[in-house]
Amino acid sequence: MGIFKNIIGQSSFRRKLKQMEKTAESTYGKGYVLFELGRYEEALEKYDEAADILDEMQQLLLEEGIEDEANNVAKRAMDIRFNKCFILFRLQRYEDTLQIIDETLSRKPEDPKIIFSKGFVLFSISRYEEALHILERAIEMQPEFPDPWYCKANALYQMELFEDALEAYSKAIEYAGIMDFEFPRYSFLNINPDPTIKTNAAGVWYSKANTLSKLGRTEEAIEAYSKALEIRKSFSDAWYCLGNCLAEAGRDEDAITALTNAIQIEPDLIAARENKAELLLKLGRPEEAKETLEYDPGTGN
Q1: Taking a C-beta distance cutoff of 8 angstroms, is the pair 278, 285 a contact?
Q2: Class of the CATH domain delimited by 1-109
Q3: What whole-number distance in Å separates Cα of residue 147 and Cα of residue 111?
């Protein structure tokens, strides 16, 4: 009878663990949905609740001497607690965000993605020198990880170290991941699929172009904005800035075309309307200039 009792006991124990795991993941899933809905405080509660269930599960496993499974459960609990930092960041609770990241790093000090997340938060709160130090660590550990290169470039840009920023933007572009034909990334369907494989670097090309423009390297900036638009045609800010650079280069008709594209994508982009109207007046086309400026936000026309 002892053997059968043992088997029954083990079966009951496993059922209990399975149910706890299922409850923890379901609770975490509810938290994620609440996060997506913008109900951040409720989401935090669910994340904590899920991690607490896993802590209890880990303790049961340790009591039975099942250390490997206990360690796996502990890692899952740690991942869930780390994910709280995304919610706290949205809530602008930056010190709490950094605290969670540091707690995670104390257990996973060699994870470049977590190191990058700290650098990103420091950058976001304008602690650029500290951010650069952390981002360099992430890059040293994983040189082909594009995110820290991009964040580093943005920090250097904010510090007005433009030449250094250009170098970092180039690295971010070099290592950018493939977009898989822009489809079905983030639920957007590409009506006219382009057979050319594209990298996920539109934002990096745009930032690089801004830096080149800041340095007065207008033709290079035009080329960089065009690269961004090859990747993402619906990038209104890139069309707007390209239009301004083209105007600066004396290419007025091309500038009008670029600004028109910006307006078509974002009709209430008033700066684009004003700059287009100014060019039209310069070219002696006052009626078109007037029509460009006549925009009703209520109707979108």
Answers
A1: no
A2: mainly alpha
A3: 14
Contact 89, 66 (CB under 8 A): no
Provide the percentage of residues in the chain whose pLDDT is more than 70: 88
Say if residues 81 and 63 touch (Cβ distance below 8 Å). Answer: no
Average pLDDT, the chain: 89
Name every residue whose Cβ is closer than 8 Å to that of residue 81 and which is 6 or more positions away in sequence. 47, 48, 51, 100, 103, 104
Residues 6+ apart with CB under 8 A from 46: 27, 28, 30, 31, 34
With beta carbons less than 8 A apart as the criterion, state whether 84 and 100 touch.
yes
Give the span between the Cα atoms of 118 and 101, in whole angstroms.
Answer: 6
The residues, any chain, with a CB within 8 Å of residue 228's CB and separated by 6 or more, are 201, 202, 203, 205, 206, 209, 235, 238
Domain residues of the chain, as ranges? Answer: 1-109, 176-301
178 strand-pairing partners? 199
Fold matches, 1-109 and 176-301: yes
Are the beta carbons of 182 and 190 closer than 8 angstroms? yes
- Which residues lie across from 199 on neighbouring strands? 178
Mean pLDDT of 175-201: 48
CATH architecture of 176-301: Alpha Horseshoe (1.25)
**Alpha carbon of residue 226 to chain centroid:** 22
Distance CA 269, CA 275 (A): 10
Report residue 299's pLDDT band, with 50, 70 and 90 as the boundaries: low
pLDDT tens column, 247-286: 999 999 999 999 999 999 999 999 999 999 999 999 999 9
The beta-carbon contacts of 234-238 under 8 Å, at least 24 apart in sequence, are: 234/265, 235/202, 235/206, 235/265, 236/261, 236/262, 236/265, 236/266, 236/269, 236/272, 237/206, 237/262, 238/202, 238/205, 238/206, 238/209
